[in-house]
Structure formats: structure tokens, C-alpha cells
Design brief:
The structure holds two protein chains of two kinds. By secondary structure, chain A is of the alpha/beta class. Chain A contains eleven helices and nine strands. Chain A has a domain of about 140 residues: Neutral Protease Domain 2 (Neutral Protease, domain 2, Orthogonal Bundle). Chain B: It holds the Pfam family Emfourin.
């Protein structure tokens, strides 16, 4: 049985339509397999970066564990057992010279993430079976290992750059469940954990390959414990926006990309090769992430005048987030350099500063970011100017 | 009798709609029974879970909006049934209503901006932003 929609009116009755039909039947022509393989190489750059950096760190970690505590199992190597003077970054990616690394005092115990990945094994029940805990070797299950590595990268961004140890700031476990549901086309945050489906294989090929998606989900947890932006209408679009911001920054931080080099895409690689599209969303150019005969065109507005009023999707939270997304990306590009170091910091200050209220809309949020920029960088700073320019470009009054 | 299930939300923000014409089904009585024993009036708003799906289920005169977490028991039976017999339609948000108003709006603004201009300019874009030229 298939749940594939019929393409309404295929613009090109060529190989793509044909390929879709074939893929649906489970018979993929060899030329397409080759294209998919090539595309996978391309799309997996972020996940690969995560894996590479983890590998790079692995020997050091092993040495440390074996050398310091001969009898200590890797998964017992947590904050509490870390030696004084040890450099931070036990279990997650962090190479020498990695950008943005904060300099921790040598006397403080180095924080480390506490990741717990469970497997729903195709059911829709949570949490599923616990399959990989902190410090354990890869399982060989790609979704499990991608989630584990990805969570390490998100943890690194929040801890190293913003000094926030995990979602709650106190090192609580980072929990994720993979293989949720049968061909489940989604990833979500249920209030306690990140949950990832495998995708239907026709439109979506899974969600753990994308570092920005993993960052997006974890950031929902951070928002829930900080600004508590209500998940409806404008405040909901801001909640989504904040998740896109830290999802994109996770990817940029992991890959060492500056604002110019960054793709500003959310969910690059979650679509199959059959879909005409790069990602779920583009922060810099909302409305341009995909244009496909089955999915239609990316509906995100890039300016307040195109704000979408709808009852669906909690009031269009995944649509109207395009407006603040563009403001953020424009400010980052105007400033240049590493976005997590300036605009990201301003947004983090805004999120955690205690001035936002759950029902705040775009205008209040914009004003809060501008205030945060002035607080941190000064009234006449170029950072404050870039933030004001970003909001101005999307039609939102920042003051 | 028509049963419509609209799934919106999700991290991708894509909307799917399944529609079933109950009379066209081989077992219409079972459908009617299923629809009638649904607790239509007992669906308090669920706690919002970021990126999780929202379902709007409609069968005149009934309508209910449920968080995915609430789609259990008979609701789940109905949704599974609908998905089994119907192919989903993918819709842009408000595909029915949005395209038209947008076009009207553009024509309106275009007329405003170009009062008295030649009629072939009528479908001019609403804005001066060159990136947002209308679809050819």
C-alpha cells in the first residue's frame, strides 16, 4: 500500500515522474541509485562533519579514560569523574582551534554531555528501548549514531559558546528516540525528548541526517525552559524561529562556517533525491527551499506584508517563522564572521534574558533583540545597527 | 457523507488532506458507525508539542481539532481507515483561499500604484521588490 499522493499535474512528464512511480514500487533504476548515492554524499556533509570530528576526538578520549582511570568504563566518564585540569570536550567534537571554543578555567570540572538514545523500533510509543548511552561506541545503526553525534554538536554549541550545559543549563540528560513510527515523516519535541521518524523514503529520507534538524529540536527544549514562547500564531512562529536559529548555528559551528559560507538552510538532506528541493526552509531566502510538483513551492513569507493567517499548523508557526528567520540571517550576513559569536549571542541573551513574555509577537521580540544587542555591544554598535537593519528589511519595527 | 482529515504542522509545515466519500465505500454502514461513536465534543485542546502534527477531522456537522497525541482509540481507527482508502492531497497552507486573495491584492495594489496606466500592466507585482515578481 502506498500513501504517495498523485502528482496533480506533473510539469515534466519525464524521468522524474517515472522515477517516482518506480521508487514507489520499490524498483529504482540504476542510474537513479547512482544519483542518490552522489546526492547522499553531498547532503550528508553536516552529519559527516559530526562523525569526523567525533572520530578525531576519539583517541584522546580513550587515552584519557584509560590513562587516568584504568578501570573506568567510558560511559562512567562523566563530569563527576573528570580529572582536574583536564580540558573540556571529552565526548563531543571539539578539535584544537575549533572556532568559538570557550576557555574554561582549569580548576573547574569540565562539563560533558549526557546523551541517551532510544529506539522506538517502528512503534509510536515513547521512549522506546535505550540503545546508546554516553561514551558507548557507535551501534552501527545510522539513525542512532547520527542522533548521538548530532546531540553532541548541539550540546557543544550551547555549552562552549553560551555556557549553557544541556537543555536546562544544569547538565540534564539529552534524550532522543529514533525509528519512531512506521515511515513517520516528522521529527518533534515532546516536552522531554527529541523524537525522529525514518521518513517514508519517497519524500523524506529520515531526519537524523540533518544537524540543523537535531539542533532545532533541542532548541525547542531550551525555549520551553526559558522564554516559553506560546506555540501559536506570532509567538509560535518565534518559537519556531528560535529553533531554526540554533539549528542553523549548530551546523555552522560544527562545520566552522562563517555567515557568508553558511547555507542558512534548515533540514538540508531530509528530502529524497526525488524531491526538487534543497531543504525544508531557507532562513536567508524564505520561500526558495523547494519547488516540487508534489510538494508545491516553499510557502514561507520573507516579509511581514506576506504574513499568512491560517488556523492550520498552530496558526502557521512553520510558515511565518520565515519573517524573523530572514531578519536574523540578514543581520548575521551584514556583520560577517561567525554568526554564533554575535547575532547568535544576542538572540541567546534575548531568549534567556527574562524580558520576553510567552505571548510576545514579532514587534516585542524585535525590540528585545535590539535591547539585547545594545546591552552587550553598546548603543551605537554595528551589532545593534545590523539587528535593526535586519528587522527593518522584513517590515518589523524594532523600536 | 464526507469525511475529511487534514494533517498540518510537523517540522516541515506541510499540509496533507485525505477525503473519503463514505457512500462510495464498500462498507458505508461501518463508516457511519465509526463516525457516530467518535467523542466529537470531548476533545479539549491538547498541550502543544513543538513540531508535532495537528489533525483537523471533519464530518458534517461535526468537527474536531486534535493534537497527534490525542489521536488514539476510535480517532486513530478513523484516521488509519481514511489513510488506507484515500490518497492524500498536498496543499499549501490555505491553498483554497490564499492564492486568490493574493492575486486580488496584487491586482489592487498594482492598480493603485499605476492608476490610469495601460491595462496590460494590471498583473504587475504588488511590490517593488524585484525578487517577488509574480509567477509566469
Amino acid at each position: 500500500m502506498t500513501r504517495m499522493p498523485q502528482p496533480p499535474a506533473p510539469r515534466d512528464p519525464d524521468a522524474r515522474t517515472f522515477a517516482r512511480a518506480r521508487a514507489r514500487a520499490g524498483i529504482v533504476p540504476p542510474y537513479l541509485l547512482l544519483r542518490i548515492a552522489a546526492a547522499e554524499e553531498h547532503y550528508d556533509v553536516a552529519a559527516d562533519a559530526a562523525r569526523r570530528s567525533l572520530l578525531r576526538d576519539e583517541p584522546m578520549r580513550e587515552l584519557r579514560v584509560e590513562g587516568a582511570h584504568p578501570g573506568l568504563l567510558p560511559h562512567e566518564h562523566t563530569r563527576s569523574t573528570t580529572l582536574e585540569g583536564e580540558r573540556p570536550g571529552g565526548a563531543v567534537a571539539e578539535g584544537e582551534g575549533a572556532p568559538g571554543a570557550a576557555d574554561h578555567g582549569v580548576a573547574a570540572p569540565a562539563p560533558a554531555p549526557d546523551r541517551r538514545i532510544s529506539d522506538a523500533e517502528g512503534a509510536e510509543s515513547l521512549p522506546g528501548r535505550l540503545v546508546r548511552t554516553e561514551g558507548r561506541p557507535p551501534t552501527g545503526d545510522e539513525a542512532v549514531d547520527d542522533a548521538y553525534d548530532g546531540l553532541g554538536e548541539v550540546w557543544a554549541l550551547f555549552e562552549r559558546v553560551y555556557g549553557r550545559d544541556a537543555i536546562d543549563g544544569e547538565g540534564a540528560p539529552l534524550e532522543a528516540t529514533v525509528h519512531f513510527g512506521d515511515r513517520y515523516d516528522n521529527a518533534f519535541w515532546d516536552g522531554e525528548r527529541m523524537v525522529f521518524g525514518d521518513g517514508d523514503g519517497e519524500v523524506f529520507r529520515g531526519f537524523t541526517q540533518s544537524l540543523s534538524v537535531i539542533g532545532h529540536e533541542l532548541a525547542h527544549g531550551v525555549t520551553e525552559l526559558t522564554a516559553r514562547l506560546r506555540y501559536r500564531d506570532q509567538s509560535g512562529a518565534l518559537n519556531e524561529h528560535v529553533s531554526d536559529v540554533f539549528g542553523a548555528l549548530t551546523e555552522q559551528y560544527a562545520m566552522g562556517q562563517d555567515a557568508d559560507a553558511a547555507t542558512w538552510l534548515i533540514g538540508e538532506g531530509v528530502f529524497t533525491e526525488l524531491v526538487q528541493g534543497r531543504a525544508l526552509r531557507s532562513m536567508l531566502e524564505p520561500g526558495t527551499a523547494y519547488d516540487d510538483d508534489v510538494l508545491g513551492r516553499d510557502p514561507q513569507p520573507a516579509h511581514l506584508r506576506d504574513y499568512i493567517e491560517t488556523d492550520a499548523d498552530n496558526g502557521g508557526v512553520h510558515l511565518n517563522s520565515g519573517i524573523p528567520n530572514r531578519a536574523f540571517a540578514l543581520a548575521a550576513v551584514e556583520l560577517g564572521g561567525f554568526a554564533w559569536e554575535h547575532v547568535g549571542r544576542i538572540w541567546y541573551d534575548t531568549l534567556t534574558g527574562g524580558t520576553l513574555r510567552p505571548n510576545d509577537g514579532f514587534t516585542a521580540f524585535a525590540a528585545a533583540t535590539l535591547a539585547a544587542a545594545r546591552d552587550r555591544y553598546g548603543e551605537g554598535s554595528r551589532e545593534a545597527a545590523a539587528v535593526a537593519n535586519g528587522w527593518n528589511a522584513v517590515g518589523v519595527e524594532a523600536e | 457523507m464526507e469525511v475529511e482529515v487534514v494533517r498540518s504542522g510537523g517540522i516541515a509545515g506541510l499540509r496533507l488532506t485525505w477525503t473519503v466519500e463514505v457512500e462510495d465505500q464498500p462498507d458505508p454502514e461501518e463508516w457511519v458507525l465509526l463516525v457516530e461513536r467518535l467523542p466529537w465534543s470531548e476533545t479539549p485542546p491538547g498541550p502543544p508539542e513543538p513540531d508535532r502534527y495537528t489533525y483537523r477531522i471533519r464530518c458534517e456537522p461535526h468537527e474536531a481539532t486534535l493534537a497527534e497525541r490525542q489521536v488514539t482509540g476510535p480517532w486513530r481507527d478513523l484516521v488509519d481507515r481514511v489513510r488506507d482508502v484515500a490518497e492524500p492531497e498536498r496543499g499549501r497552507p490555505d491553498a483554497a483561499g490564499r492564492a486568490a486573495p493574493e492575486a486580488e491584492n496584487e491586482a489592487e495594489n498594482g492598480a493603485e500604484a499605476k492608476t490610469g496606466s495601460a491595462p496590460e500592466n494590471a498583473p504587475a507585482p504588488a511590490t517593488t521588490d524585484p525578487e517577488r515578481s509574480p509567477d509566469a
